[in-house]
């Protein structure tokens, strides 16, 4: 049952990430945490997210905004070790509740501000986005909502947003694996080799479906999906926190 769940989740999450740039960890992490526990669940999804982004990178290369990759990606990586250290002193359920609640409030505020303010594109905003994404990634396995909030406020074009997130996910997830392993004693689950192959198959199939959908989905629809995914990720984070408390 676990393997079927991983296969389906990697397929759906990869297809959405190929179209929108995010969604892999936000959809998969809550499921993996419930089934495998916080430590192994986040480690598994983080490792699979690296594979997914590496496979997507070549086809999205030309749309990457490298300036934003560095200004957001480097703060993301730098914020992960201290966030992991803080995470060792806080109950996991509280972390999920806090991360989810902050995302819901932040994304709601960003949507309200979007139509009434000028685009927010400053270096400071990019650095704060990176810090938020890094903390969310290592503590709860979801860094996408912070990216979505910046995408909303900066009115980042969909194609560039989706492409630029892939190298940032590779940077962030690599730092998460190292930090959780060294600071939080997290380990990858001991899955059989064929389970990893099935997960890779789900990723490959999801990429193919997502690639086929490109150009057939209106940018406004894609943007709407991005916002919904971020909000779903936040709600699932809150639910995960409540379940762990109970």
From TrEMBL:
Family annotation (InterPro entries): TM_pro_TauE-like
Mode of membrane association: Multi-pass membrane protein
Chief place of localization: membrane
Alphabetical UniProt keywords: Cell membrane, Membrane, Transmembrane, Transmembrane helix
Residue spans crossing the bilayer: 27-57, 69-88, 94-113, 125-152, 158-179, 191-209, 221-243
Location(s) in or outside the cell: Cell membrane; Membrane
Record-stated family: Belongs to the 4-toluene sulfonate uptake permease (TSUP) (TC 2.A.102) family.
Listed name of the protein: Probable membrane transporter protein
Species per Swiss-Prot/TrEMBL record: Yaniella flava
Lineage: Bacteria, Bacillati, Actinomycetota, Actinomycetes, Micrococcales
């Amino acid at each position: 049952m676990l393997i079927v769940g991983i296969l389906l989740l990697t397929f759906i999450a990869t297809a959405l990430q190929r179209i929108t740039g995010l969604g892999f960890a936000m959809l998969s992490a809550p499921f993996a945490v419930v089934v495998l526990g916080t430590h192994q669940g986040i480690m598994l999804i983080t490792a699979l997210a690296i594979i997914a982004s590496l496979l997507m990178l070549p086809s999205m290369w030309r749309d990457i905004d490298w300036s934003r990759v560095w200004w957001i990606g480097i703060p993301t990586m730098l914020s992960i070790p201290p966030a992991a250290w803080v995470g060792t002193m806080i109950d996991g359920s509280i972390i999920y509740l806090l991360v989810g609640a902050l995302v819901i409030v932040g994304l709601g505020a960003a949507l309200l501000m979007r139509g009434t303010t000028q685009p927010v594109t400053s270096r400071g905003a990019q650095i704060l986005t990176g810090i938020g994404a890094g903390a969310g990634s290592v503590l709860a396995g979801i860094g996408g909502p912070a990216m979505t909030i910046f995408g909303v406020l900066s009115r980042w074009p969909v194609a560039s947003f989706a492409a630029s997130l892939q190298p940032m996910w590779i940077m962030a997830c690599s730092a998460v694996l190292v930090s959780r392993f060294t600071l939080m004693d997290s380990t990858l689950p001991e899955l059989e080799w064929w389970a990893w192959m099935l997960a890779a198959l789900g990723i490959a199939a999801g990429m193919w479906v997502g690639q086929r959908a490109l150009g057939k989905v209106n940018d406004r629809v894609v943007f709407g999906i991005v916002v919904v995914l971020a909000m779903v990720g936040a709600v699932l984070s809150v639910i995960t926190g409540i379940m762990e408390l109970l």
